[in-house]
Amino acid sequence: MIKVTDSVSTSANRFDFSKLESVMEIPNLLAVQLDSFRDFLQLDIDPEKRQRKGLQAVFQDIFPISDARGNFSLEFVSYKVGAPKYTVNECQERDLTYAVPLKATLRLIVWDNSGDGEKQTKMKNVIEQEVYLGELPFITDGGTFVINGAERVIVSQLHRSPGVFFDEEIHPNGKRLFSARIIPYRGSWVEFSLDINDIMYVHIDRRRKIPVTILLRALGYVSDPEILDLFYTIKEVKLTKNASARDEDLVGRILARDIINKADGEIVGEANSDITEDIITEAREAGVRELAILDKARGVQDTDVMVKTLRKDRSKSQEEALAKIYNLLRPGDPPSAETTKG
Fold first, then answer.
1. How far apart are CA 40 and CA 44, in angstroms?
2. For each of the chain's 342 residues, which pLDDT tens digit applies?
3. What number of other Cβ atoms are within 10 A of residue 299's Cβ?
4. Does pTM surpass 0.90?
5. Which CATH class is domain 224-307?
6. What is the 3-state secondary structure (H, E, C) of the chain?
7. C-alpha pair distances (Å), 299 with each of 52, 153, 198, 233, 252
8. How far is 228 from 305, CA to CA, in rounded Å?
9. 7-32: buried (b, 16+ CB within 10 Å) or exposed (e) per residue?
10. What class does CATH assign to 163-221+317-341?
11. Using an 8 Å Cβ cutoff, are 186 and 160 in contact?
12. What angle do CA 157, 163, 166 make, to 5 degrees?
């Protein structure tokens, strides 16, 4: 097994011509880099006794992995690194990366879920195998890395801190367009943005944008009234038996819920649609005496962003919304009820 060297070679003879004696010994200035890389790999520790840090923590955070139906699970057992194929000098001469092969022992468990449909805990088969994962850049005795033949002290990497970030840009016509980005520690990036038409879209992993209401339906807010109730206060308005001057105030307002004719179940007016004189007349004829309309936006200035976004969204069920998101993230893979929810 390859190991991280504690210090550099001191085979060269050094002569001291100074008149003052040394107050203290010069410490090993490479200890920080070498000790840090040693803690990252923990190669000198038994695999079963490794602490949850460094590469060990990465594997333990990702595994186990299970399929949507619970028939298979892939567990992490241990990892090890092999010897480098080329020396440091050979990598510098051939413009290669000084690296070691990284291998992990994984355990595939096949579960017996047959029977009454409930998931069982009985193992049907277990396969344990060592898998080659790739080449891992390895530190040299001098505390450096050789990447594509070039010796570097630090391998630069741009890492965006997790959190929620808000941004604003000005459209050429002068309109302010807002956006928000959610960056998790691990997982998909989610970005929300407004376009010039006041429609809110969401990007998942920087894929093609979709109306944000599709994401809300996938999360369980299926109907238009449910979504409208999240962002607006609802006002109940009495509807007189005969036409009155108050009808003019209702024309142009937005319905918060469907108007249904109880006699035949026909929908007179759909939620999120503008109220017209014809809708008011049909509602009276259907015996409706109260209308639910949108009043004000919750927590923000009055806006019709969600109203316009819902009108852009053509999905009507949670299954349809999940399928659209699944096809967006995994194109070509046919969706099913189990895989989309997984």
1. 11
2. 566 666 555 556 777 777 777 777 778 888 888 999 999 999 999 999 999 999 999 999 999 998 877 788 999 999 999 999 999 999 999 999 999 999 999 999 988 876 555 555 688 889 999 999 999 999 999 999 999 999 988 756 667 788 999 999 998 988 899 999 999 988 889 999 999 999 999 999 888 899 999 999 999 999 999 999 999 999 898 888 777 777 788 888 899 999 888 888 888 889 999 988 888 888 888 888 888 888 888 877 667 899 999 999 999 899 999 999 988 888 776 666 656 665
3. 6
4. no
5. alpha beta
6. CCCCCCCCCCCCCCCCCCCCCCCCCCCCCCHHHHHHHHHHHCCCCCHHHCCCCHHHHHHHHHCCEECCCCCEEEEEEEEEECCCCCCHHHHHHHCCCCEEEEEEEEEEEEECCCCCCCCCCCEEEEEEEEEEEEEEECCCCCCCEEECCEEECCCCCCCCCCEEEEEEEECCCCCEEEEEEEECCCCCCEEEEECCCCCEEEEECCCCCEEHHHHHHHCCCCCHHHHHHHHEEEEEEECCCCCCCCHHHHCCCEECCCEECCCCCCEEECCCCECCHHHHHHHHHCCCCEEEEEEEECCCCCCCHHHHHHHHCCCCCHHHHHHHHHHHHCCCCCCCHHHHHC
7. 43, 51, 18, 10, 23
8. 11
9. eeeeeeeeeeeeeeeeeeeeeeebee
10. alpha beta
11. no
12. 105
Break the chain into its structural domains and give their ranges: 31-152, 163-221+317-341, 224-307
- Do 224-307 and 163-221+317-341 fall under one CATH topology? no
Q: Take residue 139 and report the two structure tokens written for it.
A: 């530190």
Residue keyed to tokens 């080659």? 132
Tokens of residue 128, six digits: 């344990």
The structure tokens listed for 321 are 């919304």
CB neighbourhood size of 269 (10 A): 22
